[in-house]
Structure formats: structure tokens, C-alpha cells
């Protein structure tokens, strides 16, 4: 049994460990003023921060490639109403709002609970009326910008209710760099990463 410590506060919670022994979760900072997602590796805990001006975040899971998924919150109420949460992807030292990496729609991605070695992400999203729906995201492969992902039937996605409102022509951030990964035949909604020089957090 090993104490992972905290970010200076009294509380911490380890939520996932990958095959490399890297742990993610949340911990409070000094005087327990806020809680932040952390990654623990080689005996050191590092805060991931949060999206924008959010005061709190949680890391739910990580894969062996170092990708981390979690939630950022404006109200720090992860056990209550999820409408203020936004799902994030931490990749190559940067935090991205997953809602900015998918076509616009009426489902807000709030809690991504798992990411596998292919980069596929599952979790929960919230509709404007408060209904909770499961989602599956798959990384956009090299053919995504040529309409391969756009042709995925909405009835075969894990977020059918949101896909139906997004139409058949996804648009991605200017200069988006698709992940090079073969995921054809898996029917999640595609997502892409911003350019590597993006300053978004």
C-alpha cells in the first residue's frame, strides 16, 4: 500500500492506473480550496489544471500512451448536476475540451470515464433537457476529412440522439490534425485534435 499524497490539501482519490503504473484521479490543493485532476508517475503527483477559468477538475482514466480523460467543472459539484461539467482530453501535455473536437450538436460531453489504447472514449453526455446519454468517440483517421466519418450511419453510433441533430457533414476546427489511426467499422462519433501548436486549455 502506497500513499500517493495530495496537491497540498487533505484529500485525494485515485481513479485509474494503466499498465505502466501511472495513476490518475483528483486531489485537493493547499487549504482544500479546490480539487484538480492529477497524474502520478515515478513517485510524483502533477496537477493537470482545468479548462479555462474552471476551479476544479477530475481525471477519470488514462491509457498506456499517456492520454488522459476527465471532467472540468465551474461549480466543483461532480456528485450533483453535471450540466456545468465539460469532458476533456489531456494529450501531449495539453488539455482540450472534447466538445470542441466533435461536430456541433445538442449533446454536451460531461464525463468521459474510459479511454482505450485505440483512443476510443466512452462516457456520459447531457442533453439540454437534462437527459443523460452514453457516448462513444473514435479518433478520426486519415480519411476523416474526405467524408469517411461523415458517412457513418447515425443509427449505428452510440450517441444517436445527438448525431441526428448534427447532420451528415461534420466540420472540425480550422487546421485540425486528424489522429493517424484505423478505426473503420467502429461506430462512435469521430473526434479530432487541434493543431499541435494550439494554446487551448
Strand order of the largest sheet: 1-2-3-4
**Strand portion:** 35-45%
- Helix/strand-derived category reads mainly beta
Shape: globular
Radius of gyration: 17 Å
Short description:
With 201 residues, the protein is mainly β. It has one helix spanning 160-166; strands at 8-17, 23-29, 35-41, 44-49, 56-62, 68-73, 85-91, 94-97, 108-115, 121-126, 132-139, 189-191.
Structure overview:
- With 201 residues, the protein is mainly beta.
- The protein is built from one helix and twelve strands.
- The chain has one helix at 160-166; strands at residues 8-17, 23-29, 35-41, 44-49, 56-62, 68-73, 85-91, 94-97, 108-115, 121-126, 132-139, 189-191.
- The strands form three sheets. The protein has a four-stranded antiparallel sheet, with no helix packed on it. The protein has a four-stranded antiparallel sheet with strand order 5-6-7-8, with no helix packed on it.
- The chain is globular.
- The relative contact order is 0.13.
- The model is unreliable at 145-186 (pLDDT under 50).
